[in-house]
Amino acid sequence: MAKILIHVCCANCLLYPLRLLEKEFDEVYAYWFNPNIHPYQEYVKRLEAMKRLQELKGLKVIYNDEYDVAEFVRNVAFREGKRCEICYYLRLSRCASVAKRGNFDFFTTTLLYSKHQKHAAIIEIAEAVAKEKGVPFYYADFREGWRDGIEESLQLKLYRQQYCGCIYSEQERFLKGRS
Question: Could you point out which of 85, 129, 149, 170 has its C-alpha 20 to 30 Å from the C-alpha of 115?
Answer without folding.
Answer: 129
